[in-house]
Amino acid sequence: MIFKFKAVSQKTNAEADEEVSEMKKQTLDLGNGSHVIYIPRFLSFDQSWKFFDFLNTHISWTRPTIRVFGRSCVQPRDTCYVASPGLPELIYSGYKPRVYSWDDYPLLKDILDAVHRALPGSRFNSLLLNRYKGGNDTVGWHADDEKLYGPTPEIASVSFGCDREFLLKKRPEKSPKGKGSDDQPARKRLKQSSHTDQYSFNLKHGSLLVMGGYTQRDWLHSVPKRAKIEATRINLTFRLVL
Ligand SMILES: O=C(O)CCC(=O)C(=O)O
Ligand SMILES: [Fe+2]
């Protein structure tokens, strides 16, 4: 069944429930209390292009200098940060983004409302936007495990524009001293870390991906470079700052 995103307006609870139940939802249990939900057609194709055009043109994008492994470098993607007033400040990779308000971009509030309707019981109050202007733009392996999100952050990621691959890989397990996996033969280690330790999603235009439970503690994610891609992708990650 296909989820159709109609006008962004107030809906009755019954209408909202119907919308959510019409969406094709795939859940992936990553084990040990981590999971991912993927809804490929969260927003309709046409509506999503309207959102893309608006965001591409009107968001106040910046490409900041960040610090990675002790070195300064230009972040390989554009970014913008929106949050409700009075929340603790976000700092990542030594960079403290300027905070825009939801009132600066009412359309983002509409997308937030649609996310809330799709995920009853979840709440988000901040949003990190990323724009990848072609396949050289990327986000390296990381977890969104900043303290301000608490121990089990839920992150709702909406994508527009060009499809990009999104990878999830298990963090290497910390082994107790002296009993590390280094003691095992290489062949056995390889076997153990082979199958379900990495997943790939092709994040489609108008899709919603949700990372929940302990995903930020136990897994890393990335959007790798893709030399042949020239088109732009915009990604919105909604988060709850506690
Ligand atoms: O672009 C994406 O799909 C992921 C972005 C991301 O991981 C982040 O902003 O922390
Ligand atoms: Fe992330």
TrEMBL record:
The GO biological-process annotations, alphabetized, read as:
DNA alkylation repair
Q: Which Pfam families match?
A: 2OG-FeII_Oxy_2 (PF13532)
**Record's InterPro entries?**
AlkB-like (IPR027450), AlkB-like_sf (IPR037151), ALKBH2 (IPR032852), Oxoglu/Fe-dep_dioxygenase_dom (IPR005123)
What are the protein's GO molecular function terms? broad specificity oxidative DNA demethylase activity; cytosine C-5 DNA demethylase activity; ferrous iron binding
Annotated Basic and acidic residues bias: 171-186
Residue stretches in coiled coil: none
Region ranges (Disordered): 171-196
Q: Which family does it belong to?
A: Belongs to the alkB family.
Name the UniProt record assigns to this protein: Fe2OG dioxygenase domain-containing protein
Q: Which organism is it from?
A: Erythroxylum novogranatense
Q: What is the lineage of its organism?
A: Eukaryota, Viridiplantae, Streptophyta, Embryophyta, Tracheophyta
